[in-house]
Structure formats: C-alpha cells, structure tokens
Amino acid sequence: MTVENLLVYAQSKIHKDHARILLANLLNLNPLEIFLHLNDEVEKEKQDIYIKEVEALKNNKPLQYVLGYTNFYGNKLIVNENVLIPRFETEELVENTLKYIDKYFNQSLDIIDLGCGSGAIGLTLKQNITKIKTNITLLDISEEALKVAKENAKNLNLDVNFIKNDMLENRKEKYDIVISNPPYISEEEEIEPIVRENEPHLALYAKEKGLYFYRKILSNISKNLKNQFLIAFEIGCTQKEEIIKIANTYLNNIQIICQKDLQNRDRMLFIISNSLIK
Fold first, then answer.
1. CA distance 122 to 116
2. What are phi and psi of 50, to 5 degrees?
3. Is the pLDDT of residue 133 over 80?
4. Distance between CA atoms of 270 and 259, rounded to whole angstroms?
C-alpha cells in the first residue's frame, strides 16, 4: 500500500488530521511533508502498525498515548497510560511559577514536584531556571510513573532527583518551592469518557470532593519548608475558596494569590511566605 492508500483508509475511520499525524510520525516525516510522498510504498510491517494505531484511535484512545508522546512547553515528552497527559493549564502553572521565581529568588533553590507523573513540571522548571542553581526532586507514589519521568529526564539530559513516596509523608528535607498538580477531580464528578477510560485514576481522582491531596500536602508541609517559600498548585476551577481555607488552617504569615487561566477560570494558587515578599 502507498501513503495515499493508507491515508484514504484511515480517513474513513478517524479525523483526517489525526490520520496524517499518525502516519507522518510512523514514517518520520513532518505532517506537512506527507503529501509529497503520496506515491511512496509503505512496508508491510509499518502498514500493520498504522492500522493498529488507527483502530486504537477509533476506539477512543487518546492521540498522545497512540503516538507515545506529547508536546509540553516546547519539549517532546514520553507519555503512556501510567501518567496523565499534561494540559495547557499545567503549562500556565509552570509559566507563572517561573515568573515568581524570577521575582523573588536570587540564590540556589531546592524544589520538589509532588505527584510528578511524566515529569512535565519539574523537568520544565529545571530546563528554564538558568540564572540560579537548582536542585530539583520529582516525587510520585507510582513506580511506573517514575519510570516515564526518568526516561524524559534522560532524553532531555536533565539532572534531577527522584523519590518514590506518598507525597511528603515521613520526608524531612526542606524546600524553597513546592509545586504540584495533584489529583483533584471529585469521585462523583462526571468527566469526558476519553479521559475516564484511559488516563490513570490514581492521578485523576481524590476523596473529599477533590480536596484530599491539598489537605494531605498542606497539613504536613511546615516541616518541609524553608523560612522563605513558595507553594504552587494547579487547582480545579471551583476549589479556590476551600483550598485557601485549608492553607490558612495549617500555615501562618502567608499571602495567597489565585490566578486565572487563559479561559478566565481560577486554576492556579500560589502560597507565598510573607518573609519572602519583604
């Protein structure tokens, strides 16, 4: 079969753009270049792989899992069913955290990414904090997720630390910055089937109406914070007030700033020690 034959087949089953992206990825071509190769013959082994990928996409498997990667903050990151697919909102969390770092910190930093998944947050911070030295730790309870994060760190040639642990339980290390996109979807909440049926529930759902991990982190975090600190959270768009209450219950002398995403939803919460602002 030729490239054109395969595209015609795929477009009868899935969106034409996805058909082109999948085939271009398989043939190591730019999707825009594939039309220059319509008459090229495709070897049988790759034909079989492509047909399986098309069927997977038709059966509601996310494109990123079929491809085996996603793009995040300009980097190509490996993703699979053991980690969440990073979203635009998480890129915004990273972008705003970098702005706070640039504003408030001028000495070496100890940073931890809690529930790191693919490593998108911690690795992106490591890559983009260039003016000061950083010691960055990626933590997750899932061994399979850590395998993905380690592979991404290797591919990006980034030197970071990895810890398998249940958030900060029994950890004594102190950090300048704690950042996390924890599971925050309520167990009763309806979400898109493509997400519910494919992405790891361990990284999606949380008890206590989605607030469990914010409480778990904040109730134990004082022992892990330096005197001047920043805590950065991605949050559900209706959770702002409850998380602020939790933060004020367990932390003193802080300022809390909620920022909206590009869709004007409350999606980022920054907890800053007053001593850092002064």
1. 7
2. -65, -45
3. yes
4. 8
